[in-house]
Amino acid sequence: MAWEAAVLFFRRTLQARGIRSPEDFLPEYRKVAQRLGLKDAEPAPKTVEGWLYEGRKPQRAFRPVIVEMLGHSIDQLWTDVPDDTEPHFVPLAGTSPAEPHADSGMDLNEMKRTGAMAVRRAKDFLLGADRERVGEDTLGLLDDEVQRLVIEYPRVPLSAIWPDLLETQDQVFRLLEGGRVRPSQLRDLNVKAAVLSFLVAKGFNDMEVPHEAMTMTRVAAACARDAEHPGLIALTDGLKSLIAYWADRPADAYHYANQGAATAANLRGTVGLWLLGLKARAAAVLGDEETVRTANREAADRREQAVPDDLDQLGGLFVYAPEKQLYYDVESRALLGQSDGEVASMAENAVAGFSDPTASNWAFGDLAGAQCDLALVRLFGGDIDGAADAIRPVLDLPSSHRNNGIVVSAMRVRNALTTSPARTAVLARDLRAEIEAFPTGRPALPHG
Length: 448
Fold this sequence. Notes:
Blueprint: E1 6-8, H1 9-16, H2 22-36, H3 45-53, H4 63-70, H5 74-77, E2 80-82, H6 108-128, H7 139-152, H8 162-177, H9 183-206, H10 210-226, H11 230-246, H12 250-263, H13 271-285, H14 289-303, H15 310-314, H16 322-335, H17 341-353, H18 364-380, H19 384-395, H20 404-419, H21 426-437
Antiparallel strand pairs: 1-2
Helix pairs in contact: 2-3, 2-4, 6-8, 6-10, 7-8, 7-9, 8-9, 9-10, 9-11, 10-11, 11-12, 11-13, 12-13, 13-14, 13-16, 14-16, 16-17, 16-18, 17-18, 18-19, 18-20, 19-21, 20-21
C-alpha cells in the first residue's frame, strides 16, 4: 500500500528503521516485549496491519511495548504529519528511538545491592572517617560531574545515572578521607558530598527502599552541617519528609517538613517554599485543611520575595520552581478531595506547566504526579472520562520511568475509583484493572 501525503508519525518512525510490514515489525516488538516481561502481549499480524495502514490505535495491552520500542508516547505516534516535513516530537526521556535497547540499565536487585554497599560505605565515613587535607586536581572535574548528575536526575530513568552517581559520591568521600584537603576546599567538598548523598537517598526512595533512603539522608545532613550550609540542612529535612510521605507516614512527613521550614524561615532561596509545600501535602493526608490553606498561602506570599541562592542555581531537585509549587498546591487540595472549578483549573495548569520536556524545570516524575492529581480532581467531580484521559499518559510510561512516587500516585487514582459513585461503570472497572497492573515488575526500572 502506498504511503499517503500525510502519514501517522508511527508509520514514519517505523519507515525510518526500514520497517514497512507486520513481518518486519513483529520480531522487533517481541524483543522489547521480552525485555519488559510482557511475552503474552503480542499482536496478530492483522492487528499490526490495522495500526500501519488503517490508523487504528493499539489496545492498551500493547501500548507499553510500542512506547518503549519507539521512544514516543502513543498520542505522538498516532499524530498525522505531512510526508514532506520533519516532525518535532521530543522523545521520552531515557528512551532511544535509534537504539531501542540502549536504556536497559541495571537490574533492580543489583541496583539495591550496590546501593546498599554505598550506604555502608557512607555510614563508615560518617562514623569514623578521618577527614583532613587533599589537593584540588580533580575538583573541577567533580564540579562538572555533580552538575551533570543534578540536572539529569529528574529528567532520565534512575538506572541511566545510578552507577555514575555512586562512583562520584565515593570519589568525594575518598578525597575527604584522604587527609590532603586544604581548609579552603573542605567546605566545598562537604557541600558536594551533601548534594550527592541527597541524590543517592532520593534514588533509594524512588526504588521504594525507605530505610536506606533515610540512612543516606542522615549522611547528607551530616555533610551539610560540616559545610555549615543552612539551606542544605533544611533540604535534608525536606527529603526526610518526602521519604516519609511516600512511605505513607504522614505524621513523620509533617514533623520533618515543619522542622525544616523553621530552619529555612530566614532563607531567601526556594528551599523554604519547598518545605511549606511538603508541610501542606502532609497536612492534607492528615486531614488538616486549615494548615494546608495557611502553608500554601505563606508559600505563595514568600514566592514574591524569593531570591535565587546557590542551591537554586544548581537546578534539578535543588530548585523549587513555580511549576512545582503549583503541582504541590494542587496535590494538597486533591488529597483533601477538592474538585471545584478553581481546583480543576489549577490542576490543568499544573499539567500544562510540565508539558515541554525541553524546559529547564521539566521532570517526568512531576509531570506524572500532576497528571494523576488532575485525574483525581476530575474523578472527585464525577468526570470518569476526563480522569481516564488525564492518567492515560502515566499508564503509557515505559517501565523505566515508573518510580515509587509515580506508582503511589497512580494507585491513589485506583483507590478513588473504588469509592466513586461510577465505580460500576465499564470504563471505571477497566481503568481500575489497568492501574492495578501498572506496578507489575516493580519498581519501574528496566531489567538488565
